[in-house]
Design goal:
The chain is mostly helical. The protein contains six helices and no strands. About 80% of the residues lie in helices and about 0% in strands. α2 crosses α3 and α3 packs across α5. The longest helix is centred in the C-terminal third of the chain and has 37 residues. The model has no long low-confidence stretch (mean pLDDT about 85).
């Protein structure tokens, strides 16, 4: 079998990707998650008028994390992720899902060496990269500010 025949064979047996429908589902589910966040923000503004936007944003983030953790615990978020693909991992709920999943997977090994140790295998690198990128952006902003 030469290279061209092999390429044709691979093309023939490979599953056909439904790119546009996958993109549409990701967009709709990601948008729906963000819409729920905006709705929660509006509700919190009505219920807690003394809170400013920063406090409302923190409450919304915490609520979305809690909802995603509960949905992960009862097995619903995995179905959402299977349907939506990347649309379910981009918002903060995807991060919550990954931490909760890791914690649930290792709970039989105990609290310290199972749940706590393994959930930070995922969270640790994300936090480190987030802090490093924030520092680089801040440094870049500072350097640009020196020359303007």
């Amino acid at each position: 079998m030469d290279e061209q025949q092999y390429a044709q064979y691979i093309k023939k047996i490979s599953p056909k990707s439904k790119v546009w429908s996958s993109l549409l589902r990701a967009f709709l589910v990601g948008g729906l998650i963000c819409l729920v966040g905006e709705g929660l923000g509006a509700l919190y503004q009505l219920w807690l008028p003394a809170y400013d936007q920063t406090q409302i944003g923190s409450l919304v983030s915490c609520t979305l994390i809690l909802i995603a953790s509960i949905l992960t615990g009862i097995g619903v978020y995995d179905k959402i992720g299977y349907f939506a693909g990347g649309g379910s991992i981009v918002p903060i709920t995807g991060f919550s899902n990954s931490i909760t999943s890791a914690a649930m997977e290792f709970r039989k090994e105990g609290i310290i060496f199972g749940t706590c140790a393994n959930m930070f295998k995922i969270a640790g690198p994300v936090i480190v990269v987030g802090v490093a990128v924030a520092m680089l952006c801040g440094l870049g902003y500072f350097i640009v500010g020196l020359f303007l």
